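Model the whole thing, not chain by chain.
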Amino acid sequence: MTQKKFLHTAKAKKIGAAIMIAALTLGTTGCGSQSASAEGNGAIKITNVSYDPTRELYEAYNKAFVEYYKDEKGIDVEVVQSHGGSGGQARSVVEGAEADVVTLALEHDITLIEEAGLIEEGWLSEFDRDSSPYTSTIVFLVRKGNEKNINDWDDLTKEGVDIINPDPKSSGGACWNFLAAWHYADLKFNGDEEKIKDFVKAIYDNVTVMDSGARGATTTFVENGQGDVLIAWENEAIATVKEYPDEYEIISPSISILAQPSVAIVDENAKKDGVEDVARDYLEYLYTDSAQRIIGENGYRPSTESILNEFSDKFDLSMDLATISDFGGWNAAYDKFFVDGGIFDEIHGA
Amino acid sequence: MAKSRVKKYRGGHVIPGFGLTLGITIAMLSLLILIPLASVLGNAFRQSPAAFFKTITQPNVIHSFETSILCSFIAAVINCVFGLILAWVLVKYEFPGKRILDGLIELPFCLPTAVAGITLSKMYSTTGELGGPLSKLGIKVSYTHIGLTIALVFIGIPFVVRAIQPVLEKMDKQYEEAAYILGASKTKTFFKVILSEIKPAMLTGFGLAFARGIGEYGSVIYISGNSEKERTQVVSYVIMQKLNYLDYESATAIALVLLIISFLLLFFINVVQIRQSRRTNNV
């Protein structure tokens, strides 16, 4: 009896093992056939690894691109999207995530992928305008009515103003908020570093919740109802106001910073997948007039001047925008402000 | 006949072969735990000892360790008290909905921690359903140490309840009766008889909840506010800060210290338990 039972279980085990092996082989061959179809007559699949707020933009853009490519070249393309914090996305590509093109928030994030040997040197000049098909800037989002009367950076230093602002030590995107404030103070105090530090410190002293990223900060401000003002990316602010037109308004400060999200082909991966040409066409198409309009409609500033002007009611074009080169490039800015023991730690340490 | 049956019994474990099972055990342990942990060690020591110590002695790193350890400790203590009461109710009494309540205990295990974190931070923020009334009393919960501790209580409670429950179930009622007959008061019975019986289990639960809390990320990140100024950054947040800038060396250095602390903690609890069981077995 016991032996019979034992036999039974042994048999069952063998069957189970067989099923598992079968499933594994099926699984792998399944994957194999999928990648084969990419090279065959099926749709060509490219993967675009991007950051959080571009979700809606690329949804619309991919649709337009797929249509254009089918009409123009007769080739079916399928674009797979991936979104997350920009730094984290760069890290996942470095660690081997499938990405044929990257469209990230910071030049620096793409440089990290370059340093890992996945992107060839000189990617910055591969596409127009420093491979930056759209830009954005840092603005203030306040609750309707603007009770605390916030109009410019000075108002953020006032006592009793609660600010929601993400942590630059945790998110590359949040560095722009700091740099924008710094640039304003720089002009105001004519480069007197002590005064600039005091000014920026006063702003960061008013920060009540410091989330780990821009999306988290938006959630804290919008969903949890914290704070009087959110220092945010213009595209995020526009998206929020679009969703809740009666609850929030955007305040554009007189001076801010021009954030230039960058795009690049991940050469190694694209070569391996045999999709270099499609990847190039995919990013180049971003610069066409129709794509630039999609970009404008989704809250990003088109890099083509004439199209940008079409959206002059949406973007405050009178803002004075600094660029990262005013800080000596991203790496110099990072070393000065955000490394451990840098200026940010100095003004916001415990 | 009888002899052969005995033989068969001795050799006939349900799971075959010591060699095979040990082999699988070691292989799994290596693939899932030992090799990844060794790589943490390797990465951490890739930098010079001086740089390593500089990284882990930075004020924000030290503050984050203080915050994590203190809040996890308080949360684990709270969990011991409420975990015991919960386990007691579930074991000793019959009431409608008991099964559901029993199942609910495990919810923190299966709910994605980020979901718990976002929900808690919303509920306990000054405009939330629970945080609103509390803020009127002057108690701010979300984005403070209190909120952080609440999140850690949430994720730690199942460890304590599930550790104590089986011991309470097995505990012979005769002990209580004997204590009663010998004239012990109710308090005395509880502290001298019941509590000493469940102490090892409680300690296990405490240790697991504590160790889990020190390393917790998802649920605390949304409720803590992550302010270096308010000292609400936890260790795992500082590790993520480093990771987001691809600073693997610093991240692994801090992770290593975290690992050592958790290891020492569990080690200490094991030692205490072994001593305890030795003592009770010798009596």
